[in-house]
Write a structure and sequence with these properties.
- The complex is a heterodimer of chains A (170) and B (594).
- Chain A is of the alpha+beta class and 170 residues long.
- Chain A is built from seven helices and four strands.
- Chain A has two domains: 10-73; 85-168, Glutaredoxin (3-Layer(aba) Sandwich), CATH 3.40.30.
- Chain A has a four-stranded mixed β-sheet, with helices on one face.
- In chain A, helix 1 packs antiparallel against helix 2, helix 3 (50-60) packs across helix 4 (64-73) and helix 6 (100-111) crosses helix 7 (153-168).
- Chain A is elongated, with a radius of gyration of 18 Å.
- Chain B is of the alpha/beta class and 594 residues long.
- Chain B has five domains: 6-93, Glutaredoxin (3-Layer(aba) Sandwich), CATH 3.40.30.10; 128-335, NADH-ubiquinone oxidoreductase 51kDa subunit (Rossmann fold, 3-Layer(aba) Sandwich), CATH 3.40.50; 348-431, Roll (Ubiquitin-like (UB roll)); 436-524, NADH-ubiquinone oxidoreductase 51kDa subunit, iron-sulphur binding domain (de novo design (two linked rop proteins)), CATH 1.20.1440; 538-593, Alpha-Beta Plaits.
- Helix content of chain B is 39%, strand content 14%.
- Chain B contains 24 helices and 17 strands.
- In chain B, strand 15 (561-562) and strand 16 form a beta hairpin.
- Chain B starts with 5 loop residues before the first strand and ends with a strand.
- The chains are: A alpha+beta (170), B alpha/beta (594).
- Chains A and B meet through helix 2, helix 4, helix 5 and helix 6 of A and strand 9, strand 13, helix 17 and helix 24 of B.
Chain lengths: 170, 594
Amino acid sequence: MTLTPNQLDPLDNPRMREVIDSTISEFGDQNGALMVILNHLQERIGFITKPMQAYVAEKLNVPVSKVHGVVSFYSFFTTEPRGKHLVKFCIGTACYVGGASQLIDKAKQVLGIEPGQTTSDGLITLEVCRCVGACSQAPVVVIDEVNHGRVRPSQFARILTEVQKSEVAP
Amino acid sequence: MAYYRSTVLVSMDPVCIDKGALDVKEQLIKELAKHNLSEEVQVLDIPRVGDPETEGPDFLVYPEGSHYIQLTPATVGPIVMEHFIKGRELQQYKAQMRDVTDEELGEPKDKEIRIILENIGKIDPRNIEDYIAVDGYQALAKVLGEMTPEAVIQTILDSKLRGRGGAGFPTGMKWKFARQAPDTPKYMVCNADEGDPGAFMNRKVLEGDPHSVLEGMTIGAYAVGANQGYIYCRAEYPIAVSTLNIAIKQAREYGLLGKDILGSGFDFDIEVRMGAGAFVCGEETALLASIEGNRGEPRVRPPFPASKGLWGKPTNINNVETYANVPKIILRGLEWYTSMGSEKSKGTKTFALAGDVANTGLIEVPLGTTLREIIYDIGGGIKEGKAFKAVQTGGPMGGCLPASNLDLPVDYETLGAAGSIMGSGGMIVMDEDTCMVDIARFFMEFTQDESCGKCVPCRVGTRRILEILERICAGKGVPEDIPLLRQLCSEIIQDSLCGLGQGAPNPVISTMKHFMDEYEAHIYEKRCPAKVCRSLITFDILPEKCTGCTVCARNCPVSAITGERKQTHVINTEICIRCGICKQVCNFDAVVIK
């Protein structure tokens, strides 16, 4: 469901708009609805743009500043689309001690982007994240929600190429 | 509710029924009645046990966990005779035990006692029948049927159960305060925002034995007088969230959550709320703000959540592991529970062993077990025969303890006195190749990034400490940095609003206390003794070991290595970013750090 960078705002896309509306009506009545709705929008749309934040604020009858305050507070909420594949480096203590920073260096070398950036073809976004709780397999790289444990820098280039190749294959 | 000594779970898979499972079950009930075992052995239907095609009809007998397969009505008689009368397994009908391979949770080692982890990997977390078969929800039945809320609170007080989230506040006291609060409605909250890097005990419990947490929460809700509960689980644990949601749905279907639980007239329901990647939400007031749909910023206590919590109403909040202890205490009794642990800390604690230790993974030991027993006897010592340098307990708010503290018993008071904390149970072992200044810098980078920004000492103070530590690691430290760090640390501890700020300086204070020599080496000699800090090291290739295989040159991210095939390679230290990849990929140990 994730959009590529140059597409319209989800609010202007009828299919996305429907997802947004149904999410708001599904959870809008709950106590503490804002967090629940934002979590689902992040999952279903992939990001929460400023127009989307204003729209949610209007629907829930709360100030836009409150919605924006919540979106900007939590690191899971993003305001821009990510690449099609998300590569997250766990930088929890065990992974840090286990050599996560060398994996990040390797990824920078292979993809030419920094963590937080997306490759120009919109394919891969690099991110660092907090401990994913798989410390016994450190260092861990999470690729599209799947944990890869005990990754060595020498294998890592191959893993990345496989992600890239999976796109070329039919 | 009757107490059965055994439970037989009969597979009711359509394929098994087709192969005669109903006749097998009927025969089983007849045979049990014939031997007057109907009061002792419970027979339950479950959707599936083994593989219906090859093993059905089949059933499982608990508590032994014996799996009898390919049954016919004729084979049931001998099994009942042997298993329930004579007490031995009938090997000819038994399935070979399938290996439970859980990388994070191996077989229990000597010195381990597993209470919280005992069911994990042995029951199907997505099937409530599995939990019921191991005495699940019996404690709840006992509480609702036989005990007053006051008696439940007294039992938990007497058990000396303390908060497993790390602060160690007596759980019974919390419940008592929440019960005494006059306002209504009251809420029950479970803190499953296990954010400490290096800790994954709660994830394992939520993914492997979710009903134990639901049962503990429900018992607590009865004691406190709450009718609505929330489990706040971090977004990094999607499997835990989905497992919990399945467990809650099944518990509702079985009348173990919802209206009139077990016909007692007591109503209680639970909802899962997801975090969104903010470490500070593990702090209880920030967590409550997040459930309310706000920025997860902590607020001043008092008032404590027990009097003013969720939506300003009395709220009891405990950690996952704390709740998971409750059913066991109720069911197995105080004498059993208080027989484990040290004087002031009873029961067991789960720890996530990680880092440079031979056996990483989850363990559970009685409180009061020494660090040495945990790291060497259970953890198997340091990897690759290297020397122990420090163990970090309690996450980013904890501290690093040196070898001289290895014989300390692990409990709330002892770890606190040594300058660390119990914390939620992360335990990261570090070997001689770890730079303690770099570790302090790492933790400060974490807390600085996760500081919510509400109070100045934490927001600005952690930033200043980080800058100083970065300076020291870069070889630009000055002697005045040491007293400056000390002053900043003590001011941040005194003036911060919540536990995050008050604990943030701990990694710095503990490393300065135990590893001052490393700070001094960085500042005075511009040397990193563990050879970690990049600005203070250089890489070199030993000509006598280099075979000219070109692996290092091909892997170098900045092309700093040159050399012809089969010729000695050379690192250009001007270009080298000291990432260490060449050292890792070299098969001949030719790359050394100077």
